[in-house]
């Protein structure tokens, strides 16, 4: 075997090992998703790429204040059925970093199983189990003139589900919009892909994301 051929084989082995390790990491540990929505502003901006912890939730259930990536098919978007060429192209695009599947959403967890979520009180604040929610992540603090949600609601969150909302309340399709739909706007914990922990791109805007657990 010539030196050139040995070198080519060695490079090929290294590339294959790197791909295998990268795949395992992205499937089981962390992945990168592109934010394709403005619904989480000012916390997350459209086009930013975020690091997602795939081991989430580490405990029995998600926590209030966490920012999660989830599959919204069948709740936020219609069920599209099994594998298809379109889905394969979407996954390929996500894998090489040119977008995320259209059924993937990023929102903040407001209520977990057993919670009673109500909006809004006389001060314009949302409450969970009768306690006002401190939402310092919103662009504007809730008040009687600028409530935490223009749409009033009251919801009981079943066990195994979460109530999610975007930080940009004026431009967010979230649990509020699905109150009359099957599931009542609640997302099954089984649909959670992971928790957003960091913004990794653009490079100059990289930062850690605090879940703000309450």
Radius of gyration of CA atoms, rounded to a whole number: 20 Å
* Ends distance: 64 Å
Compute the average pLDDT. 80
Total helix count?
A: 2
- Biggest pleated-sheet summary: 8 strands, antiparallel
How large is the share of residues in beta strands? Answer: 25-35%
Helix content: 10-25%
- Structural category is alpha+beta
The total of beta strands comes to 12
The stretches of 5 or more residues where confidence is low (pLDDT under 50) are: 18-26
What does this entry show, briefly?
The protein is an alpha+beta fold. It is built from two helices and twelve strands. The strands form two sheets. Strands 1, 2, 3, 4, 9, 10, 11 and 12 form an eight-stranded antiparallel beta sheet that branches.
Could you explain how this protein is built, in words?
The structure is a single chain. The strands form two sheets. Strands 1, 2, 3, 4, 9, 10, 11 and 12 form an eight-stranded antiparallel sheet that branches. Strands 7-6-5-8 form a four-stranded antiparallel sheet, with no helix packed on it. It is 17% helix and 26% strand. The longest helix has 26 residues, at 3-28. The model is unreliable at 18-26 (pLDDT under 50). It is an alpha+beta fold and 214 residues long.
Keywords:
17% helix, 12 strands, 214 residues, alpha+beta
Question: SSE layout and pairings?
Answer:
Layout lengths: L2 H26 L1 E5 L14 E5 L13 E5 L13 H11 L8 E8 L4 E4 L6 E3 L2 E2 L20 E4 L4 E5 L21 E2 L3 E10 L5 E2 L6
Antiparallel strand pairs: 1-2, 2-11, 3-4, 3-11, 4-9, 5-6, 5-8, 6-7, 9-10, 11-12
